[in-house]
Amino acid sequence: MLRTSLFLISLLLSSVFCLENINEELEEYLSIKSLRDGRVTSSFSFTTLLRDAIPRDPRTLAFDDDTSQHYTLFPLSLGQILRQYAITELHLTLNAGKWNYDTWGYPDEPDVGVGAELRAWMAGDSISSIDERWQGVRNALAGLFCASLGSLDEQRTTSPRLSFPPEGALPDWGLPHELRHASHASEHVCTENLTPFLKLLPCKSLSGLATLLNPHRIFDADWHGIGLHVLWRPEGVEVRLNVQLVFDPLRISAQGKQDWSFHSLFDRKVEKACPVASSTRVSVELPNSGVYRVYPEPQEIRDGKAYYNLKNNNEAWNIGTMWPTDFEYPLSSPDPALVPFSVTRNLLGPTQDRGQLSIVLTNNQQDTLQLLYLETMPWIVQFYLHTIRVHSDNVPRDDLISNISYVLPVPHARPATFESVLTLPGRSTLTFSMDVAKAFLRYTEHPPDAQRGWDLPPAIFTPLNQSLNGSMSLGSRVYTPSLLVDLATPDFSMPYNVIIFTCSVMAFIFGSVFNVLTRKFIVVRVRPDPPRNQSVSRTEKRLEDTDSDTSNELNTSKSGVH
């Protein structure tokens, strides 16, 4: 008994010693901001840093001699996928809703395209090797997050040149790095994606800021999305799990006010901090105007934000903001847009074989603005580049589009990729239009809801910022809403009509043949008609005699059968 106790004590001390020397770090952060239309945006960020770690060299994949994976805070299941397919950088987002840039401004996490979006940077000495690993990581993430990421196959995969530069560093292995990008507009986030997402956190949803992630409130928000980001920095490999939400306090509040708190938004409070997190912080952006009160009293106010440190406090936290005066929605929004440009994207045309892609861009500032325009379109919609037309304030300006890069689609194999640079003069409206052709599909290629149409991925616009030394840098990306294209659909009721008609004919034939085979036929002899000059009474008498003779013959035949 004494030996067992000493062994357990030594094991506990060794575990504590190992925990103190583990080179992993977890930070939790929550940013809350009140929007000018009365809504509230909440952005959760759970960042795990694996210090002094580097991505796996893809040249070691052939030897299968990778070191064992032992993590304490870093998610093991994700780490195994990253090592198995030698992923240098990875970004995955699952979103639902339309982000209103004009009213809400730029989001904290820029990847707000509707549906699923996945991109990865991988090094390799051949394209086939990268494509095989891309397929493997898609399927692995699909199983990890219970999402239909396996549908992001080669028919949805692209490799844009400029729109998605690496956000972290790329190791210098002497091998070229390739980008793979795919999106699926009809794949939305749901509870079955949130559950495995929370399992990647060290404290799950038992403590820390993750306790606020109530599925009933998350998926009732006006906009909601989750994301996974893996980067390599000089400090090590960083994994950031984020949840971004937009609530409407007026809709969920019983008093009909814009007051909000942890309990009113999430129906929960932060009871205790995550014990393995190095920091647990909350920031609340203070409103620019109006009479308001933030509670409890913030520990620090800096740059228009109130900061709270929840790490060393054991009390339940219910941070919130209240306005003593009633709030009313403005009938019109006189305030200018919160982004430098606004965009509207439509697919026009009354027919199901042709159409026109129309984009309207409005520059909200005085300075000239350059935008990097990316359009990834499935092969079912084909571009006619010779029909591109650019107008600025209804004046033809073909000089406002440059650096066009186009990758042709391949039916059933590859989507189209269109990249260009658009120049917007100050305080102007630019119109971009291009004719498109809609493909005819086999009836087996249509989705179950074919009459609804096909979801097309959003377009992406990225401002090009010029620095003082003349170099260009990319600003925050702007995603347009997805489009719905109406393709020519066959008459899906025809197979059922054929089945019904065939069954009716078969039933008629079977019934007739069965009737012929089972019915017993008997010859009935009928005497000739009486002469015309005979009286009616004699004729009737002869008919009666004929009927009696027939009855006698029938009775005789029946007795013969027995």
UniProtKB/TrEMBL annotation:
Membrane-spanning intervals of the chain: 496-517
Leader sequence segment: 1-18
Polar residues: bias regions: 549-562
An example Gene Ontology CC term for this record: GPI-anchor transamidase complex
Keyword set includes Transmembrane: yes
Record keyword Transmembrane helix present: yes
Domain of life: Eukaryota
Alphabetical UniProt keywords: Membrane, Signal, Transmembrane, Transmembrane helix
GO biological process: attachment of GPI anchor to protein
Renumbered residue ranges of the record's region Disordered: 530-562
PANTHER family referenced in this protein's UniProt entry, alphabetically: GPI TRANSAMIDASE COMPONENT PIG-T (PTHR12959:SF11), GPI TRANSAMIDASE COMPONENT PIG-T-RELATED (PTHR12959)
Protein's name according to its UniProt entry: Gpi16 subunit GPI transamidase component
Biological classification of the source: Eukaryota, Fungi, Dikarya, Basidiomycota, Agaricomycotina
